[in-house]
Amino acid sequence: MTVTNGEVHSVTANGGLTNDKPFKIFVGYDPSEDIAYEVCCHSILKRSSIPVEITPIVQSELRTNGLYWRERGKLESTEFSFTRFLTPHLANYDGWAMFVDCDFLYLADIKELRDLIDEKFAIMCVQHDYAPKETTKMDGAVQTVYPRKNWSSMVLYNCGHPKNKVLTPEVVSTQTGAFLHRFQWLEDEEIGSIPFVWNFLEGHNRVGEGDAATFPKAIHYTRGGPWFEAWKHCEFADLWLKEKDECVKEAKK
């Protein structure tokens, strides 16, 4: 299933990049967080001023199509823990595409993020320094701490970059978590930085008093969102619940 909006037209990004195709967005999908996926997509489509094409990354479909075969590890909190790295392959190693976890809520036009693209990088992401204190997250999943944690939760991939052609189904199905989540197929200078407000970690990042530049453009409920009983009172829960109500109402029309 792919969700699209609007008519296809020319989209201009940083550096004069022109693309006559919709901006490809791949969202990690887990059956246990179906409502989170739906709300994430709704929040993107509602605010986007450019054509976008949203595709869920569904592990069962990838297995059926022979694109993914690794066994699920005990520390994998979602079905897209590793399938996310198939984004360049699923985009046919062409153009730019975004991967994002389903537990995001977008509060700004995705065009603003799209316009940050810089062709000199292989990928671009928010480069967090994040060491969570909790031992569990979501609905009881084990919380882990590792270098570059959460960098891979929202990534702009330069899918045609030669280095990203390393991300084949075989590599994604067999390589270590460290190799993939720490982007070890790349040199540091090939990883571009995006402002933290595009991957604003609930419970970690803070809005500066009177500083509009620190208000989130995309909230990441990385510890767990209001769709989980244990996190129904988390920070920014009201914004997600409002978006969910809108999403459900529109689905019933």
UniProtKB/TrEMBL annotation:
Superkingdom of origin: Eukaryota
UniProt-listed SUPFAM superfamilies: Nucleotide-diphospho-sugar transferases (SSF53448)
InterPro entries cross-referenced by the UniProt entry: Nucleotide-diphossugar_trans
PANTHER family: EXPRESSED PROTEIN, PROTEIN CDI
Protein name in UniProt: Nucleotide-diphospho-sugar transferase domain-containing protein
Organism: Salix brachista
